[in-house]
Amino acid sequence: MNMTLQVHSPYDGALLAELDLDSGAGLEEKLERARGAQADWRKVPVAERVERVALAMEWFREHTDEVARDVTLQMGKPLAQATGEVGGLLERAQFTLDIAPEVLAPEILPAKEGFRRRIEHAPLGLVLDIAAWNYPLLIPTNVIFPALLAGNAVLLKHSARTPLCGQHFERAFEAAGMDSLVTHLVLDHAGTTALMGDARVGHVAFTGSVDAGRRIHRAVAERFIDVGLELGGNDPAYVAADADLEATVAGVVDGACYNAGQSCCAVERVYVHADVYDEFMDRARVLMEAYRMGDPLDPTTTLGPLADAGSLEGMARQVEDACGRGASVVTGGSASEGRFFDATLLAGCPNDCEVMQEESFGPLLPVLRVESDEEALAHVNDTHFGLTASIWTVDPERAEWFATGHEAGTIFQNRCDYLDPALPWTGVRDSGKGSTLSRHGFHHLTRRKAIHFRDAPG
């Protein structure tokens, strides 16, 4: 008897789907089909790969409403945001298609008499993508599209909370005539660990927690294959004295509460210059109190339920810890019925409290008043993460000073919580390793292959 995975709505607990786990002969058959499909696909010219992959984009475009609804049902994202995520998938995928011919073209070395030399970007084979639930379309997009364009096939192990999104990716590429080049797998932890040890897997991409990232890194270490790890964040924002407060407060609050704060690059801690602190807090409170919790399918809902019930306890603990160290709750601060947590604004959070040091993954906005740029930067640098950071200022020189003084994958000025597909998405320290997006994302899904031919004598 097959073991199954049950998928429930975080809003009302309704059973959405029950899927058989892949195992045994059935799993082996899928892996062999993927291996065979990749062996043929790698021989297809890049220009033709681009045309074929573009057909899968059309499937998502035509099925936007269905896909967005499934995102909302599975993880609680308000429907308008889920629809926007489909749009983000199409934007990122299109950029990847546009740059693929140039990025994947062989590098022809300068002429050397009697020799032909070039560097090719060879595929890795089967890419295992272990995708997270919080952005269940965008996160796989960062891997699947460049992996396919580079000549790989993808084994997609989606989160147990959002497996229907994995099915949608498989269907999209089947509709494009790319059978077995994207294979959705339903696996438990043991099955996933075993698959990482399979010699047919040439690369592992993972998005998730730091602890899980460490386990995955250890699991593949003896195989000498590369692994991309997009892990947690504790992303800071510094509001300088010259910030445009109307735009700044709107951006920072949205960065903390969009998708109910369930984003690795959400704004997690804020440092506000004393000159604008009071006005910032007044404006932030108004915006935080305007969020409306409810059924994520209701178009008036702007703050959905948390996908992970355990997050409620963790957020309550962080609020209690901060208040025990001298912080105060300006608005919110507690869980509501179901899996909801109020949009919460905290004032006077010391930098050593848990909410300022660890990821929250919920709609929390902890704030600390600072007296200078230098004090703010010292607090910003007090972290074991390094995904993104933002500075809110009209002064480009101040922004450059901030970017030079802080190590993170991305430094923003006057924006946050956004991935530009032309820029590499990467982190430092406990935020992970490797890179997706941009031309550099292709480099982690290919290997350099040197071609060194000597001409025949005569």
What can you tell me about this protein's structure?
41% of the residues lie in helices and 21% in strands. It is α/β, with parallel strands linked by helices. It folds into 2 domains: 4-232 and 427-453, Aldehyde Dehydrogenase, Chain A, domain 1, CATH 3.40.605; 235-384 and 388-413, Aldehyde Dehydrogenase, Chain A, domain 2 (3-Layer(aba) Sandwich), CATH 3.40.309.10. The strands form 4 sheets. It has a 7-stranded mixed sheet, with helices on both faces. Helix 2 crosses helix 6 and helix 9 (245-257) packs across helix 10 (277-289). The longest helix has 26 residues, at 79-104.
Can you tell me the CATH topology of the largest domain?
Aldehyde Dehydrogenase, Chain A, domain 1
Write down the overall geometry: globular
Main β-sheet: number of strands, strand sense, barrel status? 7 strands, mixed
What is the CATH domain class of the largest domain?
Answer: Alpha Beta
Count of individual helical segments: 15
Cα separation of the termini: 69 Å
| Helix-strand category | alpha/beta
CATH second-level architecture of the largest domain: 3-Layer(aba) Sandwich
- CATH homology superfamily of the largest domain: Aldehyde Dehydrogenase, Chain A, domain 1
| Helix-residue proportion | 40-55%
Number of strands: 18
Q: Please tell me how large the radius of gyration is.
A: 23 Å
Query: Strand order within the widest sheet?
Result: 12-13-14-11-10-15-16
Q: What number of structural domains do the residues give?
A: 2
Q: Calculate the mean pLDDT score and round it.
A: 97
Low-confidence residue ranges: none
Fraction of residues in β-strands: 15-25%
